[in-house]
Design a protein that fits this description.
By secondary structure, the chain is of the alpha+beta class. The protein has a single domain, classed as Transcriptional coactivator/pterin dehydratase (Gyrase A, domain 2, 2-Layer Sandwich), CATH 3.30.1360.20. About 40% of the residues lie in helices and about 15% in strands. Strands 1-2-4-3 form a 4-stranded antiparallel sheet, with helices on one face. α3 packs across α4 (about 95-110). The longest helix has 18 residues, at about 55-70.
Length: about 110
């Protein structure tokens, strides 16, 4: 298991919590190779394929439960045969370690 998945998301509402630089974000991508970094390095995304809508919806609900536990919420698109997840830290208008922690934990949900 990746070390990121063992961590917990932290509050980043405090002043002085900077977003990752594009270089820092790119370095973190090695931990979550299936995810894609946006051109502006402010978001990461991944699309998860499923056989049908029911499977996609069940997975989205599992992501939702995890998001509530971590108090870090992705944007989700649920469609027939897929779930798309987008992570960013809205309060800092960019990426933080929390986004990469959540991505690693979401990846682990596939193994359950």
């Amino acid at each position: 298991m990746d070390e990121l998945a063992k961590k917990r998301c932290k509050s980043c509402e405090d002043d002085g919590f900077p977003a990752y630089t594009p270089e820092q974000a790119a370095d973190m991508m090695a931990h979550i190779p299936e995810w894609k970094l946006s051109d502006d390095a402010r978001t990461i995304t991944r699309s998860f394929p499923f056989k049908d809508f029911k499977g996609a919806l069940e997975f989205a609900n599992r992501i939702g439960k995890l998001a509530e536990e971590e108090w870090h919420h992705p944007d989700l698109i649920v469609a027939w045969g897929r779930v798309e997840a987008l992570l960013t830290t809205h309060s800092i208008k960019g990426l933080s370690e929390n986004d990469f922690i959540m991505a690693a934990k979401i990846d682990l949900l596939l193994e359950e």
